[in-house]
Each structure stands twice: as C-alpha cells, then as structure tokens.
C-alpha cells in the first residue's frame, strides 16, 4: 500500500481518484468479499480510518487497513437509524465525501445481502435488526418470525423513536403504551425501533426531547418496508416540548407516514442532494439563526393557516407581532408569504430546511 498515493488530496486528480476507488470497490463487490475485508481495503486505499455501522455491527480499520479489534464504535453518524453508515477520518472534502459516501454505502449494502448472519450476533435484538434490514435470507427471516411469534397472516407496524438519550426507561414506557399487546423493540443506532401488532395507539405521552415516526401497517414478512417508512416519517417529526399529550398536528411530535402523503418525495430529494444550498433553504437557515426568537415556528404557523390572525392564535402571539415577523421574513426571503403561492413555497422551503443538515 505504500506505493499508493493518497486519494482525494488534489482537486486536479479528483476524477482519476474517483475512478481508482470505484475500480477497487467494484472488484470487491464482484468477489463478494466480507465486510471486514471491504472496510480494510477501502481504508488502505484511502489512507484514512474507516468505520462501518450496519445494524448493530461495527467494523473499524486504521488508515493502513488494519482491523481495529476491540476498538469502540464511532457511534451513529449523520444518517442515524439507517441501515448502513460509513464514516471516514479524517473526512474528505465536501464534493468527494458526497460521491464516495454514496458509492461505499451502496457497495456495503450489496455485500450485506450476501454475508450470512454471524453466530455471535444472533441475540434477540440483533435478530430483529436483521429483519428490519431486509438482509437475511427468506429461511432466516421465517425462522426469526416464528421465534418472535409472527405467522404469515400477522400484520405489524413499526415505529421509530428518536431523542431517547439517557432516558431509555421513558422510551421503553412510551413503547409499551403503544399497544395493549406486548411490543417488540430494538435500538438501531440511537433510534428505538418498536414493532406492534396491527396499528398502534397514537394518543401517547412523549417525553420532552423525543419524537415518533409511524410506519405503514404491513405483513410481518414486509417488516423492513414499514421500518423505512417509519424513518421517513421520523424525519418530519419535531422533538416534544412537553411530557404530556395530546399534541396538535402542528406540533409534529408524532408523525404518521400516512399523513405525510406525497410530501415523502421531499425526503428522497433531501437524501439525494444537498438541499441546504437552495436559496430558500439558506434564507430560512439565516432566519433561524437570527435574533428573533421562534421565527421558524411563526413561519410554520403562517404557512399552515389562512391569515396572520389565525397564525397568531396558533402560536399564542399578538397578531401585530406576527405581522412584523412576516414583513421581516419577506424582506429576507424575497417573496410574499401570505399569498397562496407564497404560502406553498414557504411550506416546501420549511420542510426542506427541516430535512437539511442545517436544521
């Protein structure tokens, strides 16, 4: 490896370096190497430390490709709760990081589909994570479902709970309140995945700082699709500001993917491109970091209602104060907010901001 030059250190060589790394990745996928070998080869070729998190598994390699056995995991990255997270240390430049991350994540997912479940990782939580990942073979999935007690006619819903932090007891009480029947749960990174029979109760008390995304009801064999939709719903959720419900739709503490509807496409857009570079999103980020408190909360109320007075009632502020905030925001964003088109544009901009790394 000493004969290799370090990749992505010179912008002039960016295209060549990407081709070189892609060749290494493609060869490993074709050979169906194990994940540890994959991470080792990538780390050695990048000459950087590489960490792979995949449903509870952590593989870390030093810049020379050595496997760091027994080393602590790097923890979930910016895509907390997804099935695969790859982190590079020191990080690459922004453009390189985006493209390399996409290539590595896709390759890791392909290799995961072809790697058998390790015996040492067959504990109950790991088995549930395996089902959520859609990686296990059909027979493995059937065996795990039978062990949990689900047959082919069982219908389930997956919920994703974030913001747990040190309040695991509160999260588990929340999970238990979702259904009169026993629930099944496991942590995927920092997100708690909760599986309930049928549809869950949604009149819940959510501890301060937590939020809940509710997936689709599906056959137990399609558990992974409900999990992915729960994660999508979670991206639209906001941390609870009080420990007791009920919560308004406007609070977005508990978000059902069924209510997200066609707006789900915005989560896909935000996941595939850097929406923080859009002018509307940059403008909202500047307003969020400005001197006026609760500016985005006010703008969300304006986008969700038909008049300044209704928005003021929603956020418990005087309508003159809200009107002034709107004028300030219009000057910063460059378009009228209270006209129908402006309200729609504002709502889309707010959603993309909430989905962006800036939020």
Walkthrough of the structure:
This protein has 359 residues and is of the alpha+beta class. It has three domains: 11-113, no CATH class; 153-269; 274-355, Arc Repressor Mutant, subunit A (Orthogonal Bundle), CATH 1.10.10. The chain is built from 14 helices and eight strands. The protein has helices spanning 14-31, 35-46, 94-113, 124-133, 138-148, 168-176, 223-235, 257-260, 264-272, 279-288, 295-304, 308-315, 319-333, 340-355; strands spanning 49-54, 57-61, 84-89, 155-162, 184-188, 191-197, 211-219, 254-256. Strands 5-6-4-7-8 form a five-stranded mixed β-sheet. Helix 10 crosses helix 14 (340-355) and helix 11 crosses helix 13 (319-333). The longest helix has 20 residues, at 94-113. The protein is flat and about 65 Å long. The protein starts with 13 loop residues before the first helix and ends with a helix. Mean pLDDT is 83; it is low at 70-82.
Radius of gyration: 23 Å
- Main sheet attributes: strand count, strand direction, barrel closure: 5 strands, mixed
Count every beta strand, where a strand is a DSSP E run of 2 or more residues. Answer: 8
Instruction: Please give the count of helices.
Output: 14
Average pLDDT reading: 83
Which regions contain 5 or more consecutive residues with pLDDT less than 50? 70-82
What would the principal axes of the Cα set say about the shape?
Answer: flat
Fraction of helical residues: 40-55%
Strand content: 5-15%
H/E series: HHEEEHHHEHEEEHEHHHHHHH
């Amino acid at each position: 490896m000493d004969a290799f030059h370090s990749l992505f250190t010179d912008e002039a060589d960016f295209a060549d370096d990407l081709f070189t790394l892609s060749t290494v990745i493609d060869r490993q996928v074709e050979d169906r190497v194990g994940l540890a070998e994959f991470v080792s080869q990538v780390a050695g070729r990048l000459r950087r430390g590489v960490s792979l998190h995949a449903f509870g598994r952590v593989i870390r390699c030093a810049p020379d490709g050595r496997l760091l056995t027994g080393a602590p995991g790097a923890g979930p990255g910016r895509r907390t709760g997804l099935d695969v997270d790859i982190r590079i240390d020191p990080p690459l430049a922004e453009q390189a990081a985006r493209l390399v991350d996409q290539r590595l994540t896709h390759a890791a997912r392909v290799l995961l589909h072809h790697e058998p479940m390790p015996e040492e990782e067959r504990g109950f939580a790991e088995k549930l994570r395996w089902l959520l990942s859609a990686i296990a073979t059909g027979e493995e999935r059937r065996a795990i479902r039978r062990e949990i007690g689900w047959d082919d006619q069982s219908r389930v819903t997956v919920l994703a709970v974030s913001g747990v932090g040190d309040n695991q007891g509160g999260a588990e009480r929340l999970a238990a309140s979702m259904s009169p029947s026993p629930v099944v749960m496991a942590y995927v990174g920092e997100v708690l995945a909760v599986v309930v029979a049928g549809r869950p109760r949604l009149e819940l008390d959510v501890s301060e700082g937590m939020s809940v995304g509710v997936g689709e009801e599906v056959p137990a064999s399609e558990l992974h699709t409900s999990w992915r939709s729960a994660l999508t719903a979670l991206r639209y959720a906001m941390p609870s500001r009080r420990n007791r419900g009920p919560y308004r739709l406007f609070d977005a503490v508990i978000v059902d993917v069924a209510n997200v509807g066609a707006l789900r496409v915005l989560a896909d857009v935000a996941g595939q491109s850097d929406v923080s570079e859009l002018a509307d999103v940059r403008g909202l980020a500047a307003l969020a970091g400005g001197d006026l408190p609760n500016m985005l909360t006010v703008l969300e109320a304006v986008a969700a209602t038909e008049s300044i007075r209704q928005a003021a009632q929603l956020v418990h502020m005087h309508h003159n104060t809200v009107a002034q905030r709107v004028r300030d925001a219009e000057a910063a964003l460059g378009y009228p907010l209270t006209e129908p088109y402006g309200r729609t544009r504002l709502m889309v901009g707010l959603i993309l901001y909430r989905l962006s790394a800036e939020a």
